[in-house]
Structures are given as structure tokens and as C-alpha cells.
Amino acid sequence: MIAKNKNIPDGKHDLKLMDTQNLYDLEYFYYPLTTARTPSGEFSVSIGDTVYVGDILGTRKAAFFEQPFYSTVSGKVISIEKHLDQFLKPHDCLKVQSDGLFTKSSKLVERSDEEIKKIPRNELVELTKQIGLIGLGGSAFPSYIKMQTTDQVDIIVANGVECEPLLVSDYLLTKENYEDLFKGLLIAIEACGAKKGIIAIKEKYHELYELLNEKIEPYRKLNLEIKLVGNYYPQGWEVETIKSSIGINVPPGELTSKYGVIDYNVTTLIYLYRGIKYGLPVEERIFSLSGNAITNKLYKVKVGSLLQDIIDKDNPIYSDEQDKLLVLGGPLMGNNINTFDIVVTPTITNLTVSYAEKIIENPCIRCGSCVLSCPASLSPVQIMNAYKSKDKDELIKLKVSKCVECGLCSYVCTSKIHLTEIIRSAKKFIR
User: What are the pLDDT digits (tens) for 360-371?
Assistant: First the structure.
């Protein structure tokens, strides 16, 4: 059956109502020297050193930027070990034994809100760089680089859509820390030379809209406002969010700043404010356990926690012998994993454990559902065929690099073909 599908059950209702437990009392924390975006780096502390929250541990390096990273606990550096990232790639990690006190570094500088208002634009950009802030919606792109644009930026969009099923971190953090969001958005407006800030949230989040609409009142004179956007998937993709919230069409693959707008995730803006005010890195994330093969829970965990230690704390995975599917992230855009030896980074907010279903993949029947549903207007089945033929020129012609890996093509495929995984492989192939 030919069908266009953008309405996907999100499974968030019960998760949003759960109490969040603090899970800080782990003994060891791990800090990778490198990441997928930063393939090299150097440590600035040694084994045996005592570190505190906010102490710099090293610098990660990429082709055109460097990124400091910091301790999220206080304790002693005891070794360097290899652990995996969410893509199952190993990295050298500093292992810190926590003292359980979370004593903050004496090097941190706290600023009043009045002092922050007086910080010039270029200094805000530099401070954002110094705290190592990255896009917390999943991109992990350095936040300061967007601020360095030479384009005329008129609007900053605070993206609070979080359209991926089972992810609730942005929603809960916004609800609990709306003042930090407003202030972070104002900092981004100043740092980018913009004139206005828009907070975009889903239409169906009535209770969140009512809260924000009331609390934002003192900030309206500073050109902040809230816009409701559609509930469809992938509304959280910046191209869709910008189009729905302010009516600007940004072609996929182009810089949004060329069109006078910059999109920041709401959690990124909350930590932008905290970083400028307190000098702190991203210390913790709300982390959810979801799925039908695990006890669903919400935790606040320190960045640097090991996934294995989180699982060992409560043993929430059902112990029956049925095969289980482990996905780090949401069910559509997350990564399948086969181990818990993974360090929690600032962009990891969910583990889904579900009973594995036996899916029989059939030949493509050319129904066109994947083409109709693709938000980037690509032809997934043609990309699949070009990849199978290892036709690099055809893949480039089909604009495979513009795929946002939202997972819709796999979701709607009547033949149950894992199109998203094939397209991911195709993108790696042409690189």
C-alpha cells in the first residue's frame, strides 16, 4: 500500500509523569580523549592527580576546532582505560574515582545576571568555546561556531520539539528550568547579533505551553515568544522546526544562518546560561530507560557515567530468556548496541530495551511509501540500489548526504527493508 506517514506513536506519556531519581553515587567515571567529531586530543592531567568538578581534563582536536573537556565529579585520576562510544568505537578514557562530594573547582568564575548582560558579543563567543558546549540535541557540533557566523542573523529558534519517540529529556529539563532557558536564549541572541528569540514546542504539550506562556511574560519586551508547531515526525529536524515556527524555508544541507536564523536545542541553551553564569561544563543529563523489556525509569546521571554501572545499579532489564533489542537513543534514530561498556556523553539521554521481533525482509515492491514520506525529498529505494551497485557517482547525484537519518523510510517500508541503515552505509561509502 502506498502511504505517506508522519504520525508516529511517541510512547512518552508515562515517561513524562515519572519521578526522576538522582544516580550520582557511582564509584568511577570515564572521560574519552576523542569523539566521532574530534579524532585526536591530549590529556592535561596525570594519573594520581586530584580533580574537581569543572577542572579541565584535556583538549579534543578536530580539523578546524579544538574542544576542552572537564571533570563532572571530584576525586582522583587512577588510570586510562578503553571504553566505547554510542557508535561502539573504542576511545582512551581517563578513569576518575569519585569521592562522592562533587566539590567544585576553585578556578570556576561565577557571574551575576547583571554582569552577564554587560559581556560583549566576542567574549560571549569565547566563553562558550571555553566551556566546551556542544549541540545537545544530538549533533554534538560546537555551539560557539554558530555564533561566529558573518551572516546577518535575525532570529534564534530554541528547538524544544524533541520529536523522536521515547525521548523526554528536553521536555523535562525545559519544564524544570524555564528561567535558565529564557536567559540562555537571550545570551544566544546577543552572541549571534540577533533581534528575536522563538521557543518552538509541540502543539500537544498543552501543560508545557501554559507554563512557558505564563513565565515568559517578563521577557516579551526582550523579544522572546513561544510558537506551537505540529506534532508530526520529524518536526524536530531544524529545517521543519524553522519552517513551522517562523515560516522560513531552508533547503536541506544549507546553513540556516544564510536565511537569517540559527537553531539551538533548548537543553543547549539551558547549559549555555549555566556555563556562562557558573563556568561549568555540561555536568549531567536526564537519562531514561524505556521499552517493553525493561523497567521504565528516569535518572539524572553525571556525564562520564558508564552505562554498565547504571544498569548494574538496579538491574532493570527483565531476566527472561527472550531475545532483546538494545538501542541507545530513540527507536528511529538511535544506534543498536550489543554491550553496556559505553560512556554516557552529553548527547546520550535514553536506552531502549525491547523484545526482539522476528522481521522478515522482502524484496522491494516499489510502492513509493519511502519516497512520499522522506522529509528531505530523497529517493531511498534508488539510493539503496545505487549503494548495492557501489555507484558512487549515482549516490552523489541522488544527494544521499542530505539524508538526516530520521528512520521514516524504514518505518513505512512495506517490505521491512532496513533502508536507514543502508543509507547510513551509503553515506560512509561516498565519504
Answer: 999 999 999 999
